[in-house]
Structures are given as structure tokens and as C-alpha cells.
Design brief:
The complex is a heterodimer of chains A (265) and B (244). Chain A has 265 residues and is mostly helical. Chain A has a domain at 73-244: Cytochrome Bc1 Complex, Chain C. Helix content of chain A is 66%, strand content 1%. Chain A has helices at 28-47, 49-57, 71-92, 100-109, 114-141, 150-172, 177-191, 197-205, 214-244, 258-264; one strand at 60-61. Chain B has 244 residues and is mainly α. Chain B has 3 domains: 1-52, no CATH class; 63-144, Orthogonal Bundle (Helix Hairpins), CATH 1.10.287; 156-241, Cytochrome Bc1 Complex, Chain D, domain 2. Chain B contains 10 helices and 3 strands, in the order H-E-H-H-H-H-H-H-E-E-H-H-H. Chain B has helices at 3-18, 23-49, 73-81, 88-109, 121-143, 156-161, 163-178, 202-205, 208-216, 230-241, and strands at residues 21-22, 186-187, 190-191. In chain B, strand 2 (186-187) and strand 3 (190-191) form a beta hairpin. Chain B is elongated, with a radius of gyration of 28 Å. Chain B starts with a helix and ends with a helix. The chains are: A mainly alpha (265), B mainly alpha (244). The interface between A and B is large, with 92 and 80 residues.
Chain lengths: 265, 244
């Protein structure tokens, strides 16, 4: 004899509806799919994000799009790598003149995978700079900065400058001989500029001389100010890319397809 | 671009776009493969090249040679090439600022509708020129001897003697370069003009014994060199004595 457990006393509304005749029992994957769909639907009902996602993901890229067109997203991945490894470095780094070198030494020699993560950050910057220049070269030689994409070129050029500022401010942080002296020279070079030069170098040094707060100032610029600007501008850059579409290689002409001509009327 | 050219472009682009493929999954697949390659390159570089940490920053040393990250070499080299002091601000800030402004303004300067690189000879030549100039300056910067280097040929007499004597002279030149003399003294085209007097013709002004005395017991703020190993000290004195 089989023992049947009594059904728990759940309210009427929550009881699953009885199956219709001929309907098979839903499998685990069906339930999962339905659960997923309803969760996405719940979010979408409240945010209407699906339209934007569809607009971004299912837009068409023109014919002839080739590997040169991956350089931009590759630069963005290099930036994401910098952001991720930067977070882990910031967990150990101490931007004070007395402890900066010691904390970098700790990261390099003692922390678990420390040298590896620092190496990824250090060489990631090189990779990012190379990729951003290649991406810019592609844009230039393909004439992709022309109407209607002028503004996106401007955003990209600012991103390039900000990337260079990132590497300038980041170079000081390990606080070894090399970074210290290169930064002294770099800041002095800024100081020779016309009009704003002296103010700029005073701002960077936090005073007329390289002092106790210079390092923390560089650190704040390097990990808060510029990355925020870069992230925001990447957003604008991507929005414009999706809005205007990526260019086709300049030597490509559209085939005159009779079907298409009919449609475009 | 006038209005007609704009409309022509937009029409042509709409056709090309209609004949293209959706971003997802086609372009996304390529981008993902590229992302994996980028990560693989970064990880490999990190493992193979590591992250070295030099000696701790020491604000009291003056002999350390500043070197920027390699992608700033072209700026660094610009500074070395342009020597006259009145042009230095031009090299340090002027040219880079002009380049940055020009870079931002590219789409407003070049407004022709043509996009094919071979039919835009000015733009393409300009682009190649900029790349070549940056590559050349980076190459020069990478291969530049340190700013502590002294560009000076051995005097004819010593060059003719060769062998031991020439090696001794070269050793003296190296000691001079490494001892940071150029931070305050000028030798020929190298080094800073002050606060110390130029050493270009020091050998003509002071005999060897006086040079040695000055090096051991100098006027402040010049440091004393009496702790140098004797053979280096001799090489240093003999080198300075040949500067005439």
C-alpha cells in the first residue's frame, strides 16, 4: 500500500492549474525556460530595456565588415582588463610616499598572483595604447570620420588623449626611481607650457614642489577621475556607433538589387 | 560635403547596410574572438615579461636617468632633437598641443566626400607621414643613449695610439657619463649649462693635478669623488685632462 502525503494547505490562488486534457507533463527544461522568460519579462515590463537591447544587438552591420572593425571593441576589452586588474591592485596599494613603494613590493613579491596581476595591468596599458592607435589608423584611412560621423571622431580623439593621461599618471604609482624621475621631468615639461602650463604643473604636484600629497593626487586622477571620464565617453562612442552604424570599407559599392530597389520605394 | 553629396552617401550607406548581416551574432563573434586574442596576449606578456620593480624612489640622487614609458618616446625625443632653449616650450607643449588640436579637428578640415584612401592623396600622405614620424621618433628615443652620454671623439693623438690608451680614455668617458657630471656641467653639446662651469675645455685651463684636487676637495654643492676606486678616478682625471 502506498502512503500518500497530504497536500500542504496552500491558498487557492497559488495552486497550480490542473493540466488540460492531452497536455503532457512539463519537463524540467520547460519549467526552466518558462521561469527565465517570466523573469526577463518582469524586468522588461518595468524597464523596457528589451527595445534598446534589440536596437543594439540586431542592427545590421554593412556588407564587407572585416577584421579591421574589431579593433575598437578590442581597445574596449583592453580597457576592461585595466579596470578589473586595477581594482585588485587598489586592494593592496597605498598611495602615500612612505608606503607606496613598500605596498607595490608587497603586491609584486608576496600577494597571491600579485606580480601576474600587476604585469597584466602594466602590459595591458601597452596593448591598449597600440590598439587605440590602430583603431584610429583604420578610422583615418577608411575615411570613417567623415559625415555623419564627425562627432564620433572627436569623442575618440578625446579618449586617446585620456588614455595617454592614464599612462602618465599611472607611471608614477609604483614609486621606484624610474617612475619618480620620469614623472618629475613630465610635470616640469607641462610647466613650460604657455599660459596654463605653470598652473597645470602646480595642480599635478599639489604645490610648487613634489610633495607628500602629489602621489595621492596622481592616484585619485588615475583611478577615479580619468577612468570615469573614459567609461562615460566609451558609452557615448558606442551609442553613436550604434546610432550611425559602422562604415563599410570605402572601396565597396552597394549591389543594385532589383528587389531592394522595389522595397526602398 | 554639400547636401546632395550627403544624401547620396546616406542612400548608398542604407543599401550597404541592408545587404549586411546582423551585429549579433556575426560581428559579435568576431569581436569575441578578438577579445580572447587580446586577453591571451596580455596574459602571455604578463607571464613572460613580468612586472619588474626598480629601486625605491630617491629624491636625493641626481644621476638617475629618467625614461618614460615607451609610447612617450616620440615626445621625449622631440625634446632632445630641439636644442635651442627658446624653442624648448615649442617642443614640449607647442607641437603636442597643436597635434592634439589638429587630431580633434580632422573631420572639420577634411570635408570632401571621397573615402577611398588612394583617392585622397593629401590625407593619405599626411597619415603615412604622421605614422612614419612617430615611428622614427620612437625608434630614436628607444635607441638613444641615456642623456648622460657624452658624444665626443677621442683626440687624434689617443685615437692614433689605440690599444690600452684608447681603452683608458673610453673608460674615463664612461666614468664621467655615469658620475652625473652632466647634471651641472656642459661638455660639448651634452649636459646642462650650469650651475657648474662648462668642462668643454677644462683640460686647457687646469693641469691634471688641479683637476684631481678639485675632484677630491670640491666647492659645494659639487660632491667629492674621493671614494671612487683608484683606477676609475685616474681614468676620470685623464679623460677630463684631454678636453681641450
Amino acid at each position: 500500500m502506498k502512503l500518500k502525503l497530504p497536500a500542504p494547505p496552500i491558498p487557492e490562488q497559488l495552486k497550480p492549474a490542473p493540466r488540460r486534457p492531452g497536455e503532457r507533463k512539463p519537463s524540467a527544461s520547460d519549467t526552466l525556460k518558462e521561469g527565465g522568460t517570466s523573469a526577463v519579462a518582469w524586468v522588461d515590463e518595468r524597464t523596457s530595456l528589451s527595445g534598446g537591447a534589440r536596437w543594439m544587438m540586431f542592427r545590421k552591420v554593412p556588407k564587407g565588415t572585416n577584421w579591421f572593425y574589431t579593433l575598437g571593441s578590442a581597445t574596449m576589452f583592453a580597457f576592461l582588463n585595466q579596470a578589473m586588474t586595477g581594482v585588485f591592485l587598489a586592494m593592496y596599494y597605498d598611495p602615500s610616499p612612505t608606503n607606496a613603494y613598500e605596498s607595490t613590493r608587497f603586491i609584486t613579491n608576496e600577494a597571491f598572483l600579485g606580480e601576474f596581476v600587476r604585469g597584466m595591468h602594466k602590459w595591458g596599458s601597452t596593448v591598449m595604447v597600440i590598439l587605440i592607435f590602430l583603431h584610429m589608423g583604420r578610422t583615418f584611412f577608411f575615411g570613417a570620420y567623415k559625415y555623419p560621423r564627425e562627432l564620433n571622431w572627436v569623442v575618440g580623439a578625446i579618449l586617446l588623449i585620456l588614455t595617454m593621461v592614464m599612462s602618465f599618471t599611472g607611471y608614477l604609482l609604483p614609486f621606484d626611481q624610474r617612475s619618480y624621475w620620469a614623472t618629475i621631468v613630465g610635470v616640469n615639461i607641462n610647466g613650460t607650457g604657455p599660459l596654463v602650463g605653470p598652473y597645470l604643473s602646480d595642480f599635478l604636484r599639489a604645490g610648487p614642489d613634489f610633495g607628500a600629497t602629489t602621489l595621492s593626487r596622481f592616484y585619485a586622477i588615475h583611478m577615479l577621475l580619468i577612468p570615469g571620464l573614459i567609461a562615460a565617453l566609451i558609452g557615448a562612442h558606442l551609442y553613436l556607433v550604434a546610432k550611425l552604424g559602422t562604415t563599410a570599407p570605402p572601396w565597396l559599392k552597394a549591389e543594385s538589387d532589383p528587389e531592394l530597389r522595389k522595397e526602398s520605394k | 560635403m554639400n547636401r546632395q553629396e550627403k544624401e547620396e552617401y546616406l542612400r548608398e550607406y542604407a543599401l550597404l547596410k541592408a545587404q549586411g548581416k546582423p551585429f549579433f551574432p556575426y560581428a559579435v563573434a568576431k569581436d569575441s574572438i578578438m577579445a580572447v586574442i587580446v586577453m591571451a596576449v596580455i596574459i602571455t606578456m604578463s607571464i613572460v615579461l613580468g612586472a619588474e620593480l626598480g629601486p625605491k624612489a630617491d629624491p636625493t640622487t641626481t644621476t638617475y636617468v629618467p625614461r618614460p614609458e615607451w609610447y612617450f618616446f616620440f615626445l621625449f625625443e622631440l625634446l632632445r632633437i630641439i636644442k635651442p632653449p627658446e624653442l624648448v616650450p615649442l617642443a614640449t607643449i607647442g607641437i603636442p598641443t597643436i597635434c592634439m588640436i589638429l587630431m580633434i579637428l580632422v573631420p572639420f578640415v577634411d570635408r570632401s566626400p571621397e573615402r577611398r584612401p588612394e583617392r585622397r592623396p593629401i590625407a593619405t600622405t599626411f597619415g603615412i607621414f604622421v605614422i612614419a614620424a612617430m615611428a622614427y621618433l620612437t625608434y630614436l628615443g628607444a635607441n638613444a643613449g641615456s642623456p648622460n652620454e657624452i658624444e665626443r671623439e677621442p683626440p687624434a693623438q689617443i685615437a692614433a695610439a689605440g690599444g690600452q690608451e684608447l681603452a683608458h680614455w673610453e673608460a674615463g668617458k664612461q666614468v664621467t657619463a655615469q658620475s652625473g657630471c652632466l647634471a651641472c656641467h656642459k661638455i660639448g653639446e651634452n649636459g646642462n649649462d650650469g650651475p657648474g662651469p662648462p668642462l668643454t675645455e677644462i683640460g686647457a685651463r687646469l693641469p691634471k693635478e688641479a683637476l684631481a684636487r678639485t675632484l677630491i676637495n670640491p666647492t659645494a654643492p659639487m660632491p667629492s669623488f674621493q671614494d671612487l676606486p683608484p683606477e676609475k678616478f685616474d681614468a676620470l682625471v685623464d679623460f677630463l685632462a684631454t678636453l681641450k
